[in-house]
Design a protein that fits this description.
Blueprint (H helix, E strand, L loop, with lengths): L2 H11 L8 H12 L5 H9 L1 H6 L3 H4 L22 H4 L4 H8 L1 H7 L2 H17 L3 H18 L19 H13 L16 H29 L2 H4 E6 L2 E6 L1 H11 L2 H23 L14 H13 L14
Antiparallel strand pairs: 1-2
Bound molecules: zinc ion.
Length: 322
């Protein structure tokens, strides 16, 4: 195999769960969510908008460093049966009792993770801890956004079961990177969520329902595109990688008929809504009285964590070896 062939082969085998939504979209979603917040919150969040943007991808970076991190990003809801999304226990303890923790960690826990972090964020607002408020806000934004990606709600998350390897990165990275400049991200003010747990489960249900068209349109389009038009080579830094061609990506995007844009918009609206709801549930503390920035100690901790993050591709996740 020549060098380009080897790179192409590598591209198709890379664990695609390494960069959920792609770094580009995660950063954009956390950033835009700030603008959905009410007057009482927006000053504090705007002062930290770069922190929230830069740390939007931290949960992906620590996937291989922190045990138990990987399953927080997805839920293969289809492994539990047809209408599982309506039936799975909403309490994590009940889910462990019913399904066993091995199964949960293998097939993902994203909605339970979001619900747990909503509680943690409320608590951080209640105790007025700037470091924790920002830390949890950034991470929570990441997991909510992941729950809005259709391929994070199926066992066939990279088309590996249907000969469509690479579709994960196409949908969540390549399409938004190429085409999101024309998206309309206006969502209006963040709503208060009476039942945040139900809301995140509904988001996972919507993602699961969308997987059929995500996979089907790629399959249909592949019949139309000869191999040499379906893929092209792109320069990424100093590497040449094989990727879906721009023509294929554009036509696929057109068939999806606004799906990526709708899911991104949903994600940023939900991120704002969860931040807002946690603040309301904490009794609407006056954020203008808090330190505006993370402490020096927290900055040091973050720098250490970033230095620990692996520079190479993360190892495969149990149940997600692809
Ligand atoms: Zn992720």
């Amino acid at each position: 195999m020549n060098r380009i062939g080897a790179i192409a082969f590598l591209f198709l085998l890379l664990p695609s769960r390494s960069q959920a939504w792609g770094f580009f979209s995660h950063r954009l979603i956390n950033r835009l969510a700030v603008y959905t917040l009410p007057r009482e919150m927006i000053g504090f969040y705007k002062a930290n908008i770069d922190y929230l943007t830069d740390n939007a991808t931290r949960p992906d970076s620590r996937r291989t460093v922190v045990p138990g991190e990987a399953p927080r990003h997805f839920l293969d809801v289809d492994v539990y049966g047809d209408s599982a999304v309506y039936k799975l226990p909403r309490s994590y303890a009940d889910a462990v009792a019913q399904l066993g923790e091995d199964s949960l960690l293998r097939h993902g826990i994203v909605p339970w993770q979001v619900a747990r972090m909503k509680g943690q964020l409320t608590e951080a607002f209640r105790t007025h801890e700037t470091d924790r408020i920002l830390h949890i806000s950034a991470d929570l934004g990441h997991y909510i956004a992941d729950a809005c990606v259709p391929l994070h709600a199926t066992h066939n998350y990279n088309g590996q079961l249907t000969g469509q390897r690479g579709i994960h990165a196409l949908w969540e990275s390549r399409l938004p990177e190429l085409l999101s400049s024309s998206y309309d991200f206006f969502t209006g003010p963040a709503p208060y969520l009476d039942r945040p747990t139900d809301v995140i489960w509904a988001a996972v249900g919507r993602s699961a329902a969308a997987t059929d068209s995500v996979l089907r349109f790629e399959r249909e389009l592949t019949l139309k595109f000869p191999e040499d038009r379906k893929y092209g080579f792109e320069q990424r830094g100093n590497q040449t990688v094989r990727a879906y061609s721009r023509d294929f990506a554009r036509e696929y995007h057109q068939r999806l008929n606004g799906q990526v844009e709708r899911q991104m918009r949903l994600a940023l609206r939900l991120v704002g809504a969860f931040w807002y709801t946690a603040w309301v549930d904490a009794g609407q503390p006056d954020l203008d009285k808090l330190p505006r920035q993370v402490s020096a100690a927290e900055q040091l901790r973050l720098a250490r964590e970033a230095a620990q993050a692996p520079q190479t591709s993360p190892a495969a996740v149990p149940g997600h070896e692809d």
